[in-house]
Amino acid sequence: MAVFIGLDIGGTKIMVAAADQEGNILRRVRTDTSTRLEEDLTNINNMISEVAGNEEIMGMGAAIGGPLDWEQGIVSPLHQPAWRNIPLKAMMESRWGCSFHVDVDTNVAAVGEYRWGGVSAGRFLYLTLSTGMGGGFLVDGEIYRGQDGAHPEAGHQSIHFRCANPAAVQCECGAPDCLEALVSGNGIRRIYGKPAEMLSREEWEEVAYNLGQGLRNLAALYAPDLIRIGGGVAVGGGEHFIRSAREVMEEHLKLVPSPQVALSDLGYDTALRGAIAMAFPNR
Ligand SMILES: [Zn+2]
Known about the structure:
This protein is an alpha/beta fold. The chain contains eight helices and 13 strands. Bound molecules: zinc ion.
């Protein structure tokens, strides 16, 4: 049997899975991300061998943090300082003899949600709220790209926010008033002094309000049919959190129809499932 390989290369963990022709995961493994490039690459190759077994590998896809050059497959994930200008596509294609496609993790997650999460929306926006915050926008299933292939950064928009501790609203990108600084895991720690899972009901409402303002901007600019939201913070906040954010969006959005807003269907596997989708020749 032939298999397709998906890799989710994150700042804290690396996940690798082998899937069949229908995208069903057959085997999967994970390990912690190290601080050394050589160790990560060795781990990745060993994990691929482990999940592929003796099967023929038909293609590989990978999700990793930006910035990167998706055409050349050269990656420099911001939160993995040992990885700078790594020609991952060339390295993997020569090592494994099959096609290898890599893209920004949030784009790959959008592809995963679209392909395996039952999405048929023509204009589909996927957002992830985890350590940081980002998104991917698909038009008829194709990734929307900016100038010179630049990845639009949904988390680095300025919003009209509410915050009991405004001095702690500091984005890692250096710009003021970014959405990411208010609703991401790192932003929540800075503002509330604790992880998202420890937030009180009132604090969750404040985060939902701020997310809703960000959704309102995104809906006004992209006019998408559907927004799905995944990542640890969103999954932790659950349906109630997403509903509160959607109500804020609906209240403030004028002129443009409100999109559907829902939690991700794929939970923590969205990027991994997207990487598998990227491994297929005719995605
Ligand atoms: Zn920012």
